[in-house]
Amino acid sequence: METFRFCPSCGGALDSRSLKAGDPDRLVCTRCGFVFYLDPKVAVGTIIDDGEGRIVLVRRAIEPGYGKWVFPGGYVDRGEPVLAAAIREAREESGLHVELHSLVDIYSYASRTPIIVVYAATRVGGELQVDEESLEARWFAAGDVPWEDLAFKSTYEGIRDYLAGRRYPLKAEG
Predict the structure, then answer these.
(1) Which residues are within 8 A (CB) of 127 and not within 5 positions of it... i.e. 6 or more apart?
(2) What is the CATH number of the domain that holds 11?
(3) CATH of the domain at 96
(4) How many angstroms separate the CA atoms of 89 and 96, rounded?
């Protein structure tokens, strides 16, 4: 919270204050009273199956986690449906067109900004490739997942839960 010093509404100084017992301190403008909430960011991840029991992992070319493996994913843009973001990120990071069929789980961690929504999907087209954020993309059988070289706790837990069969069906639209 120390990185934010001025109110985005009026430019006044922000001060850390307790507004409600039991809640964390909030940044409040000393001039206009605006409360500056530091909300989480939503990210999506997609565990893509090739129909033969293998999943796609990409090796990161960016920090955090440079050189480590993750399933395709990224941040949801403001106003973008979460399911659309999962499909977009899968295509951008792996070159694959996918069909989402279930939710694996939602992951969040103390003192971490993102909430990660992980979906299970099947490849329906495209060719495996990398983008500017990846060094490499590969298919992995369950027994070949590089567990010690996964980038994030959510990557580890998402793949673990996926391989254990955790799936929540997606509701039909409408």
Answers:
(1) 95, 96
(2) 2.20.70.10
(3) 3.90.79.10
(4) 10
If asked whether residues 92 and 21 sit together in one domain, one would say: no
Sheet with strand 14-17: strands edge to edge: 14-17, 26-29, 35-36
Average pLDDT across the chain, whole number = 94
20 plus 74 within the same structural domain: no
Q: For 106, what's the count of Cα atoms within 13 Å in the CB-facing half-sphere?
A: 5
Question: Looking at the domain assignment, is residue 128 inside a domain?
Answer: yes
Range of the domain at 79: 41-169
pLDDT tens by residue, 8-21 = 999 999 999 999 89
CB 19 within 8 A of CB 100: no
User: How many folded domains does the chain comprise?
Assistant: 2
Distance CA 81, CA 75 (A): 11
pLDDT at 2 over 70: no
Note the pTM of the prediction, 2 decimals.
0.85
Tokens representing 173 are 């639209």
Same domain for 6 and 85? no
Mean pLDDT along residues 40-54: 95
Compute, in degrees rounded to 10, the torsion defined by CA atoms 145, 147, 152, 156: 70
Taking the C-alpha atoms of residue 86 and residue 106, their distance in angstroms, rounded to an integer, is 13
